[in-house]
Amino acid sequence: MPGKRFYIETFGCQMNVHDSEKISGVLSREGYRAADSAGESDLIVFNTCSIRHKAEQKFFSRLGRIRKLKKKNPNLRIAVAGCIAQQQGEKVLKRAPYVDFVFGPQNIHLLADLVRRSAPTVADGDNPGLAEKDLPAIRASGSRAWVAVMYGCNNFCSYCVVPYTRGRERSRPSANILREIEELAERGFREVTLLGQNVNSYRSEIGFPELLEKINSVAGIERIRFVTSHPRDLSERLISAIGELEKVCEHFHLPLQSGSTRILESMNRGYSYDEYRRRIDRLRSKVPGISLTTDIITGFPGETDADHQQTISALADVEFDGIFAFKFSPRTGTAAAVMNPQVMDEIKSRRILEILEVQDEITLKLNKKLEGSVQKVLVEGLSETDNKVLSGRTRSNKIVNFVGNAFCIGSTVPVRIVRARKHSLDGEPL
Ligand code: SF4
To answer: Is residue 265 situated within a structural domain?
Structure first.
């Protein structure tokens, strides 16, 4: 199969982006090389997301359009990976019989075998073995790397498919994680983001704070980040580690989802708004100036105007640096999909607009406080909008754009912030 080319289309979260890096790694090890477009490839892999209806629709319409490529080139192979593959398995082959094989996120380590088979195949079983496997990864960026430390989730929030698609929580042995990060440091990576659906419930022979301590001692690594945490697992020990470990960045992403404790209960989130608020206060007392971001779901079944106003008040109360807001999307097989009353879409649209308006003002106000300050920026590359402008992030995960020498891509440089915008900062290199 030397010389065959593959092309991956990735939908969804950072975990999927990293899974695609591993899919590329396994295929390269099998002699494939990356193609620049689907039209030039011999194997197209869709790495799918089923977190919301929209993501699923987007994938199936793309799959429909790809069919004509297979008509032109019958040797073209098509594979479906990710959460839709895990959730729907055989149904994908029935719906699109021109698909060759289907493998879920728990079965990436079977890819080398799957790609050799000619018969249509489905690998959608629960496969805890993945946590033990160290798969090769072709990494997109040269200074920042994703590192999966655990898989799956045991929380069963009533709206979420992850426990069904990625299985029960399994943590990778810390020795495997450290070896991977040491290799990354040798290759010049400066920042690692630890990935897990519920990363702060990591537990192998050590717990998550201890894992951070070990990674903090890896030479060459300057910055440590991690997503996604759950408020219930934000322990005092972890808060101290964030405050004390020099390389752990002063940014924390902690999904709140709703400001209404009544809605949090029907989401099965396992904390009240007050409990969440108390943990935020502890974090801010131990790590002054820490930047906080969160996820918010609007329009959850049964959400009233009063519940919605509690979410708006929570934004004003906490003053997050940024949020990711989503309209509730019923997912087949989840408890919330059959809850009543479902909220009408135009009400969801009105509420999400209000949430974003309120938050944009807060984000701009907090960004303005950084004007005149000097920030350490890890330069990731050229800005998406202007190739004379460099772009990077502060330790608090703010995007900074500034005119500078491309020579400093991959390095951390001091930049004076001259102007705050809603979702980024303008700077001048010192
Ligand atoms: S903690 Fe996150 S991944 Fe786990 S069930 Fe809840 S929303 Fe889904």
So the answer is: no
Atom of ligand 1 nearest to the CA of 228: 2
Substitution candidate for ligand 1 out of 198, 228, 232, 300 with most atoms within 8 A of CB: 198
375 token code pair:
């920030």
How does pLDDT run across 312-362, given as a tens digit for each residue?
A: 999 999 999 999 999 999 998 999 999 999 999 999 999 999 999 999 999
CA–centroid distance, 191 to ligand 1, in Å, is: 25
Query: Per the domain annotation, does 133 fall within a domain?
Result: no
Q: In the beta sheet, which residues pair with residue 326?
A: 297
The answer as to whether 159 is a domain residue is yes
| Helix-helix angle 273-286:305-318, to 10 degrees | 10
Take atom 8 of ligand 1 and give the residue whose Cα is closest.
160
Q: Which two tokens stand for residue 396?
A: 């608090």
CB 21, CB 137: distance < 8 Å = yes
* Gap between the Cα atoms of 219 and 355, Å rounded: 42
CATH number for the domain harbouring residue 108 = 3.40.50.12160
The tens digit of pLDDT for each residue in 11-45 reads 988 999 999 999 999 999 999 999 999 999 999 99
| 42 and 103 co-located in one domain | yes
Residues 354, 393: one domain?
no
Question: What pLDDT is stored for residue 347 in this prediction?
Answer: 98
Same-domain status, 28 and 105: yes
Q: How confident is the model at residue 184 (pLDDT cuts 50, 70, 90)?
A: very high
Atom of ligand 1 nearest to the CA of 160: 8
Q: Are 302 and 260 in contact (CB under 8 A)?
A: no
Q: For residues 286 and 203, state if they share a domain.
A: no
- Give the mean pLDDT of 380-403: 92
Closest CA to 271 of 258, 287, 282: 258
pLDDT for 1 equals 47
Task: State which residues form the domain around 60.
Answer: 5-123
CATH code, 209: 3.30.750.210
Q: What is the CATH number of the domain that holds 407?
A: 2.40.50.140
55 within 8 A of 77, measured Cβ to Cβ: no
Mean pLDDT over 159-172 rounds to: 93
116 in the same domain as 60: yes
CATH number for 363: 3.30.750.200
- From the CA atom positions of the chain, what is the Rg in Å? 22
